[in-house]
C-alpha cells in the first residue's frame, strides 16, 4: 500500500514537471519525463492489480459436497 502511494506521489511530481517543461518549450526534457510518467503509470496499474487481487476474497461461497454426482466433462448429444 505504501509503495502505491509513493508511486502516486512520484507520478504527480513528474507530471507537474512535464507540464512546466511543455509550457516553457524545453523540448529536450519532454520526452524523457514523458517516458518516466508512462513507466510510473504502468507500475501503479500493476501494483494496484496485485493488491486488488490479494485483498478481494476468494469466491468460495459454494463448495460441492462429496455426495453430489460427478459432473460430466462434456455434453453428450
What does this structure look like?
By secondary structure, the protein is mainly α. It has one domain (2-55). 66% of the residues lie in helices and 0% in strands. The chain is built from 2 helices and no strands. Helix 1 (2-23) runs antiparallel to helix 2. It is elongated and about 70 Å long. The N and C termini lie far apart (52 Å). 3% of the residues are buried. The model has no long low-confidence stretch (mean pLDDT 87).
Characteristic key phrases:
2 helices; mainly alpha; 77 residues; 0% strand
N- to C-terminal distance: 52 Å
Report the major sheet: none
**Pattern of helices and strands:** HH
What is the beta-strand fraction?
A: under 5%
Number of helices: 2
> What percent of residues adopt helix (DSSP H or I)?
55-70%
Q: What is the element layout, followed by pairings?
A:
Elements: H1 2-23, H2 27-55
Quick overview of this protein structure:
66% of the residues lie in helices and 0% in strands. The chain is an all-alpha fold and 77 residues long.
Amino acid at each position: 500500500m505504501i509503495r502505491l502511494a509513493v508511486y502516486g506521489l512520484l507520478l504527480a511530481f513528474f507530471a507537474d514537471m512535464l507540464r512546466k517543461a511543455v509550457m516553457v518549450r524545453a523540448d529536450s526534457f519532454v520526452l524523457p519525463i514523458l517516458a518516466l510518467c508512462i513507466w510510473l503509470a504502468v507500475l501503479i496499474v500493476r501494483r494496484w492489480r496485485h493488491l486488488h487481487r490479494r485483498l478481494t476474497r476468494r469466491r468460495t461461497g459454494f463448495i460441492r459436497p462429496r455426495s453430489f454426482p460427478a459432473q460430466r466433462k462434456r455434453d453428450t448429444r
